[in-house]
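Fresh eyes needed here. Have a critical look at this protein's tokenised backbone.
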Amino acid sequence: MDPLVRIAEIESGSVADELHLEIGTRIIRINGQRVRDGIDLTFLLADTALELETVSPQGETTLYDIEREPGESVGIVPAPDTIRECGNKCVFCFIDGNPKDVRESLWLRDDDFRLSFTYGSYVTLTNLGPRGMERLVEQRISPLYVSVHATEPEVRTRLLVNDRSGLIMDQLRYLTENGLSVHTQVVLCPEWNDGAHLDRTMDDLFSLGEGVLSLSVVPVGLTKYNLERPVRLLTTDEARYAIKQVDQFRVTAMGERGVGWCYAADELYLIGQRDLPEDAYYDEGALTENGVGALNQFGREFEKGLDSVLELPYPRIRIVTGRSMEPFFRERAGRLSEATGGKVDVVSVVNEFYGDSVTVAGLLAGEDIQASLGDAAADELLLLPAEAVNADGLFIDSMPLSDLTAALAPATVATGHEITECLKSLCAR
């Protein structure tokens, strides 16, 4: 089997640099143990005495004996690991709702515990057998983020369409009994895993003890391309009932552990047309990146930064967002106008690319934004959501931000994750 770990970079002045290791060299074994991926590399490089077996780009095998000081970096930066793809066929799979011309990276069906550990992405554990589970314990890969959806074996199997799905409670019990921690998640699908099934899931996960750090309840999302699936979107009343279930269980959790433990995602409150809870609801706020408490955090950052926003040389400012955040910005448009000296308008973009059931700003296509803005004036400022653009400067429909900026010229285009910070940066120019 070809080893997965190759050297992508070597830190200047490091041990690897002194040994004249080459870019592209494969790391075969460390202290006699096979190196399977970047996590293995990090784990095995922890020793101060190392026997490093490598194969150069020219095919030459070399054995290095390394002695180093505690804390001294070896200086090897590995190439990204090959991603473990998902073997499930979830009835609510969002990837199946992608249009054909979506950004290429959005087709990746990852279900990789390494990404879960490193980046907090949720995995199902269905592609891990006994040896894989043992590895998690051996290397203390924790906390993990696990998509549970349901703890009843037959319900989870129906949802994930994978015969291994029903093992989830055994898997989580093994991890927690061996000292690992997990954050868990339910994607709530009406008439599938809601109601009594959700109650059962909360009970089961809580019974595993403090190793299960949290449970997030997130509403299912569908696009116009997978609306024919056997699942459907939650109604307002269904969302409200789910919030009530979570709130009732939080009473138990607070009484026994002093934390809420289970959380209804922000989007569930939006669908249910309920006011968001106070900050205390979210305990330490560890799940904001997963849409739990993110809107509260956004509001706090807005308030904190508003006083620092100065007048800008733009008589008109247009804030671009998705329908879910439109009320937030409309409530604050007047205060932004006072701070900047310009007329602030909110442009709520209907998502034609995915369908109007998708309302978040992060999934707005460049073409939809352009169509919603129309012609723009030279003295106008257009604020676009930074979450709609990836690290390569591409919108979800693969339109480059640079192309949209050119199309909207002569107006000024700016992007930002937090609106007041974005405006402050413009003040400083």
Summary: The chain has 14 helices and 14 strands. The domain at 7-78 is CATH 2.30.42.10 (Pdz3 Domain).
